Amino acid sequence: MTVANLSLSHDGLALRKDAAKAGLRAPVRARRPNRSARAFFLFFGPVADSCAILGAALIGGGLYHHLLYGAPAAPAALLWMGALIAILVVAQGLLRAGDDMATKLDERRDLILAFKEWNIAFFLCLGLVFFSKTGAAFSRGAFLFSYVSGFAMLAGARLLTDALARRISRNSAALAQRIFVVGTDTGVLSFISRHWPLSQNVQIVGLANITPKAIGGDAAALETELRAAVAQARIADPDDVFIVLDRERADVVDSAIENFLTIPASLHLGSEPILERFSDAQVSRIGEISLLSISRRPLSGPEVALKRLFDVVLAGVGVFLLSPLALVVGALIRLDSAGPVFFTQQRYGFNQQPFRIIKFRTMTTMDDGASVQQARVNDPRITRVGAFLRRWNIDELPQILNVLRGDMSLVGPRPHALAHDRHYMQRIALYARRHNVKPGITGWAQVNGFRGETATDDKMRGRVEHDLQYIDNWSFALDVKILFLTLFSSRAYRNAR
Questions:
Q1: Which of 277, 287, 390, 440 has a CA-to-CA distance to 464 between 20 and 30 Å?
Q2: What is the domain partition of the chain in residue ranges?
Q3: SS3 283
Q4: Helices vs strands, H then E, count in the chain
Q5: What does each C-alpha distance from 202 to 21, 237, 350, 437 come to in angstroms?
Q6: Residue 240 CA to chain centroid, in angstroms?
Q7: Res 479 pLDDT > 60
Q8: Does domain 2-33+176-293 have CATH number 3.40.50?
Q9: C-alpha distances out from residue 423 to 80, 282, 416, Å
């Protein structure tokens, strides 16, 4: 990010010096925006997508039929199908992004969007072909080949345009988002300092200072300074204007909004620092009430249903396949030491609802009270068979029954003994957020090596941080990844006790 054209009213010199101390560069002149370059690029992206999809339809479809049937498919049919999918993909992009260049500078985000847009477009086209009975020229294999080759071509086009966008953004200001910031000197400096290391491809083209005299109640001074700021913004020609004034002075904020609504730019109220902790913060409505929502339920209704279906199906298959192993393990436990095969203990589940977790017994004790000592290295309470079971996570297998009962999920934060939960809730911030989803047999913390004894608060804090990352970034693909790593990653077996 560069700070350009720091022409401030009144106390601007002090703010400029403070900005210099904070390491903010301030060119003497702002580079003029290259609107034509940005417009061309936004036009080039959809054209590249369309060419890739049409190319995949004509070349890929023709090649498939030639290899399989010895003759190419009808070009008109291939062209018709490719054109329809291309229109649907491009339409989604135009409706979604508009002038949003940030998408083109984030390769991962753009590929995810491409995958979503491709699936929607392809299956809408497939449905139209089915209901119109025009798909006789295509076999099921042709549709499958078109799906794979088409997305591969679309992804290649996105990677190409994204790379071009990043190259242009590094070498010029053509694609930079130009912003103008207005507020008190301390407010503006605080806003820039907070966002300086985080913002990419953003150019601050102007800063306007509103003095304490104007904010303190001098209406004439406020109007004069706001008009001067608007005039300055017109010359700077920004894409976005950020108003960073004290929200408690609603009259001052209202006046600033009224004045800057006359500028052809997007208008934003700068966020409070507390809101920057919440990436999903957004304005929403419940009935007639307008609200600023800072977080949502960890999983939506459909996501809960998908996760539960996955748990039940996989756990059901697991019970069937692992029953012989469970019988062998149970016999070994009884032969190795006196006591029951299974160990149960009170744990907190979803929303801190207690349940009894089921495990293979691996120790000579059955602690489940106000004081529970964690297993440690060379713990004399661990039996010989128990050490082997814990080393390879086999002691956790009976929790499949907890999954089928609905107390747990296959993947989620590992549940701790109630005594440990009560202890760490008092010592680690947001520890209780772990209970906002069902606990799991395995979790993101475990596959990253955060398992075993937590002798210090820092060790538990690392585990909790990974659990919260999982909650905030849940996806079905992440659950599948964690299950895969649980079985095949050496980190998942680290620190086993």
A1: 390
A2: 2-33+176-293, 35-171, 301-493
A3: strand
A4: 17, 11
A5: 20, 14, 42, 37
A6: 24
A7: yes
A8: yes
A9: 65, 34, 11
Q: What is the dihedral of CA 446, 448, 452, 455, to 10 degrees?
A: -130
Higher pLDDT, 488 or 71: 488
User: Measured over all CA atoms, what is the biggest interatomic distance in the chain, rounded to whole angstroms?
Assistant: 90
Q: What does the block give as tokens for 344?
A: 């149960």
Residue 10 region by backbone torsions, left for phi larger than 0, else alpha for psi between -120 and 50, else beta: left
Using H for helix, E for strand and C for coil, what is the string for 182-248? EECHHHHHHHHHHHCCCCCCEEEEEEEECCHHHHCCCHHHHHHHHHHHHHHHHHHCCCEEEEECCCC
Fill in the DSSP letter of residue 156. Answer: H
| Beta-carbon-side half-sphere exposure of residue 474 (alpha carbons within 13 Å) | 21
- Using alpha carbons, select from 318, 354, 323 the residue that is nearest to residue 439: 354
Between CA 355 and CA 345 the distance in angstroms is: 8
Closest-CA residue to 497 (of 423, 428, 427, 396): 396
Structure tokens at 129: 């072909």
Q: What is the mean pLDDT of residues 322-341?
A: 93
Amino acid identity, position 287: G
CA distances from 147 to 41, 56, 89, 345, 461 (A): 27, 9, 13, 50, 45
Half-sphere exposure of 270 (CA within 13 A, CB side): 25
Tell how far CA 387 is from the center of its chain.
Answer: 38
Contacts of 3-7 with C-beta under 8 Å, sequence gap 24+, read 3/27, 3/192, 3/204, 3/207, 4/29, 4/30, 4/31, 4/203, 4/204, 4/205, 4/206, 5/29, 5/30, 5/205, 5/206, 5/236, 6/206, 6/207, 7/206, 7/207, 7/232
- What are the two backbone dihedrals, phi and then psi, of residue 244, each rounded to the nearest 5 degrees? -120, 70
Lookup: tokens for 363: 């120790």
Pick the range with the lowest mean pLDDT from 28-32, 46-50, 244-248, 408-412.
28-32
Say what the pLDDT of residue 326 is.
Answer: 94
For residue 430, the 8-state DSSP code is T
Residue 444: predicted pLDDT:
94
What φ, ψ does residue 355 adopt, rounded to 5°?
A: -150, 170
Exposed / middle / buried, residue 229 (Cβ in 10 Å: 0-12, 13-18, 19+): buried
